[in-house]
Design goal:
It is a single chain. This protein is mainly α. Helix content is about 70%, strand content about 0%. It has a two-stranded antiparallel sheet with strand order 1-2. Helix 11 runs antiparallel to helix 19 and helix 12 runs parallel beside helix 16.
């Protein structure tokens, strides 16, 4: 029974703050170098949030929901803000690397912490596999645009090519035409057919750019947090300049008539893009993993989380309104919406600039999440839930060296071989789980808002507020989605 109860033991906050890493020789707080200011932390948050969302998925979200998707970014930001407040209080209370894993250990116990520690792999490492593959697509397109063609068997995952080849083969064996398959499947078939043979029927097909960018980013993260923050700050500055140029130029091509109808597909159309929009906002979670490398974590972490969320929400809303104002929402179902709209209005030079900046934007997302995952493994190692080697801190670079290398392999090898569709949904699952536990953890540690932390979630008694919110929600549901309610009632 005692062994069973140990699974639910909670770690005292004082013990967490005093727990040294495996190799504490001569280094304060485990040898991690305190180098990050509130500006650097905010830049890390923006680096993670302003990525695939603004350069890619915003197009499909706008296509499904129309201009009203701008409101979806606001609603999602409000929902994420509640999680951000909880993260901020935890960061001010427990300024230790580990993010939701450490917070869960203090509030729910060891078993829950162990589960969320591995679930966070889906948010960081698995999420980075998706980002690396997306980066490869942008890079390959850019190289084609300047006349440098990389063979398709070096830019496609093994799984994608193998699957596409056998789908077309099966189709032809059933007597159907090859024209019945999608262009992507046909491309996979051709890639597998033209690839060099390694042994037997197995071909050399791999996404080499995705692997190489992962190796490069991992090397930067390994060398030190100072180098990582410098790279992050430069990439974020570049992204913000490009976004500002897009807004400043695009606003002159806005036609207000394109904003009508505002929500062409109703609430259902707007909410269709919620997963892509939600995925864009997980950057503030990554900020909390750098707690031991902040100069003043109890003050700066909460500020940086809120700053990053506010800045990114404003940019997302403005960009959405500009895009849907420049062209009809019906034309935005493309993978590179920012470049597309400028091609559409006759500004191909600016479209090229956007395409180049997207490569740097995706690289900055890779950088932030490659920073986060090793520090979570390092925290788990300190608590004995992983071998001590995962907690090793490099004596010269002051980074979790072994964990960083393992993260590089964990991201790089699957990015080299796998299909993006296989891993993309896992990221949102891990993130939702982390958000739920962190919010629930605050209710356990500080149920009445009496904490003495430098930042704490405002306490409001919800015994009257919650029923009121539910009533308002039901009324809005009946007013704006009557058809769906009627269909549900009939069924």
């Amino acid at each position: 029974m005692s062994s069973f109860s140990n699974l639910f033991r909670r770690k005292d906050i004082g013990a967490i703050l005093q727990n040294p890493p495996a190799d504490v020789e001569g280094h304060s707080h485990g040898g991690l170098e305190r180098n990050l200011s509130v500006r650097d932390l905010t830049a890390l948050g923006i680096a993670a949030v302003i990525g695939a969302g603004i350069f890619s998925t915003i197009g499909n979200a706008s296509h499904d929901g129309g201009p009203a998707v701008s409101l979806l970014f606001v609603f999602t930001a409000i929902a994420c803000a509640f999680s951000a407040l909880c993260y901020a209080q935890f960061a001010a209370t427990i300024p230790i690397s580990g993010s939701a894993y450490t917070y869960a250990y203090a509030s729910f116990g060891e078993l829950t912490a162990w589960i969320i520690g591995w679930a966070l792999i889906m948010e960081y490492a698995v999420g980075n596999i998706v980002v690396a593959i997306s980066w490869s697509d942008y890079f390959t397109g850019l190289m084609d645009g300047i006349g440098v063609h990389i063979p398709s068997y070096l830019t496609m995952g093994t799984q994608s090519a193998y699957k596409g080849y056998h789908e077309v083969l099966e189709l032809m064996q059933n007597g159907k035409s090859i024209t019945d398959v999608s262009p992507a499947t046909l491309e996979a078939y051709k890639t597998w057919n033209t690839a060099p043979t390694l042994f037997g029927d197995f071909r050399l097909v791999c996404d080499l750019p995705a692997f190489l960018i992962t190796v490069l980013i991992t090397a930067v993260v390994y060398v030190g947090i100072k180098e990582s923050k410098t790279a992050s700050n430069l990439l974020v500055l570049l992204k913000l300049i490009v976004v500002a140029v897009v807004i400043a130029v695009g606003v002159f091509y806005v036609q207000p008539a394109n904003w009508t109808p505002f929500a062409p597909n109703g609430v259902a159309g707007v909410l269709k893009g919620v997963s892509a929009v939600f995925f864009a906002y997980i950057g503030f979670d990554a900020i909390s993993t750098t707690a031991e490398e902040c100069r003043n974590p109890q003050r700066d972490l909460p500020r940086a989380m809120i700053y990053a969320l506010i800045i990114c929400t404003i940019l997302y809303v403005i960009i959405t309104l500009v895009l849907t104002g420049m062209v009809s929402y019906k034309e935005l179902g493309v993978g590179d919406p920012l470049a597309f709209v400028f091609e559409k209005v006759g500004l191909p030079q600016l479209a090229g600039v956007v395409a180049v900046s997207a490569i740097f934007a995706m690289a900055s997302v890779l950088l932030v999440f490659q920073i986060g995952q090793p520090r979570i493994w390092m925290s788990m190692s300190r608590d004995g839930l992983l071998p001590p080697i995962f907690g090793r801190v490099h004596p010269k670079f002051h980074t979790p060296s072994f964990s960083t290398i393992v993260t590089g392999f964990f991201v790089g090898v699957p990015a080299l071989l796998l299909n993006m569709d296989l891993v993309i949904d896992l990221t949102s699952i891990g993130t939702l789980f982390a958000f739920a536990l962190v919010c629930g953890g605050i209710l356990i540690l500080d149920p009445h808002g009496t904490s003495e932390a430098r930042f704490k979630v405002p306490y409001i008694n919800g015994q009257f507020l919650l029923p009121l919110i539910m009533v308002i929600g039901i009324v809005l549901l009946f007013v704006y989605n009557t058809a769906a309610v009627g269909k549900w009632a009939v069924s």
